[in-house]
Automatic annotation (TrEMBL):
Reactions the enzyme catalyzes: (6S)-NADPHX + ADP = AMP + phosphate + NADPH + H(+); (6S)-NADHX + ADP = AMP + phosphate + NADH + H(+); (6R)-NADPHX = (6S)-NADPHX; (6R)-NADHX = (6S)-NADHX
Residues the entry annotates as binding K(+): N62, D118, S154
PANTHER family: ATP-DEPENDENT (S)-NAD(P)H-HYDRATE DEHYDRATASE (PTHR12592:SF0), ATP-DEPENDENT (S)-NAD(P)H-HYDRATE DEHYDRATASE FAMILY MEMBER (PTHR12592)
Listed SUPFAM superfamilies: Ribokinase-like (SSF53613), YjeF N-terminal domain-like (SSF64153)
Residues of the signal peptide: none
Lipid metabolism found in the keyword field: no
Coiled-coil stretches: none
Cofactor annotation comment: Binds 1 potassium ion per subunit.
Similarity comment text for this entry: Belongs to the NnrD/CARKD family.
UniProt protein name: Bifunctional NAD(P)H-hydrate repair enzyme
Keyword rRNA-binding among record annotations: no
Binding site for (6S)-NADPHX: 61-65, 122-128, 151, 241, 300, 351, 414
Amino acid sequence: MIRPEGQPILTAAAMRAAEDRAIAAGSSVGALMERAGAGVAEAVRRLASGAPVLILCGPGNNGGDGYVAARVLKANGAEVRVAALGEPKTEAALAARAAWGGAVEAFAEVGEAPIVVDALFGTGLTRSLDDAVASVLGERVRAARISIAVDLPSGIATDTGVELSPVPDVSLTLALGALKPAHLLQPAAARCGTVRIIDLALDRSSRDWTMTKPAIAAPTASDHKYSRGLVVVIGGEMPGAAALASEAAMRAGAGYAMLFEDHAVSTPHALVRRAWSADAFATALDGKRPDKTAIVVGPGLGKGDFAAAKLAVALDSAYKLVIDGDALRLLDEAVFARIKARSCPVVLTPHAGEFNALFGAVSGSKIEAARDAAARSGAIVVFKGPDTVVAYPDGRTRVALGASSWLSTAGTGDVLAGTIGTMLAGDTPAPAEAGVWMHSEAARRLGGAFLADDLARMLSAVRTSL
């Protein structure tokens, strides 16, 4: 079984295409089914520890995988029962059921078991389950000590993560061949439990991958505060937000952080503070290296003409730029044109409400919505949430693994903006992804019930560990 970090993500159509390529190269549906079923059986064997296993088989190839798993488990001495919705409807699944050779119970009448395997419906489901089927599935899964879904928990839309039917939480989901969007996108991701991949030796070419731990070098003996990166935060009506972004920038590893803020606010002594004016901004940045400088604008900025003027100054500069919070509400197609004309990168960091206001409501896949937004804006788009997606203007996306639900508190987005600013200023590879990973890791280390201030401070430990 393969962990999900740094793995490609395939839609239902892309998965079918990968299987078709394998078949064209000399494999077969039956051979792929044998490989998948054997992988499921091995995972179940490890987890079951000799306990009785119940495998629920659907009428398609997902059910066929279940029959193969049952046969392999039985051959290795496991106590296995199989229940099915009906006769298989594909040639490969029919062959798999015949090879199983054991009894097949009626799904509606099946009893409980300590280990339950859901092999009813996997990739490609487009309609809700019958109410009776969803009810029995939910009862058996909830009664089990360990529940395992083959490819996806039944009742989930593969590409969007939408629940087509009520879906019970499972302990483990075994992604066949590759991750699917629903393994990562909410609400489906919350139902999948631990996700592991069973390798089917397929060509898994994709523009979409999961994030992995960044590789960020420690400062060398020749580094100084400017070579490590200068982060400039432009404050506004809510000074605490800009202060959080500034502290996060410093604790994420910036060599120098500067806050333009007119309000009195408690900040670390190491933070350089300046009163705002366009002239003061230009003077402070005069001679600073564009490759080692990033500006963060938006946290607590406000939405009036004064805020718009600050954003315009940032956009007119020759430096890398993070646009967050209030500043996102000031963007339009004219600003997108300016972003596309810039020679240095821009990162937008909207949460769902900001994204919908800027790009329109998401009606399908969050991955596709983020990809479209990046192409439209010319910026790297960090579509935040429990399933954060980083999308690039060239069409690539990177999806974060599940974030802590405790990040749903005020100020954590400001911390993320400052963290990404440091990654940009330090010329870190894939800076938006690195910032998202560090932010999530800081939350993981804190556990729960933390403040955004705590999150910013924990970045020091996270940065040191890289």
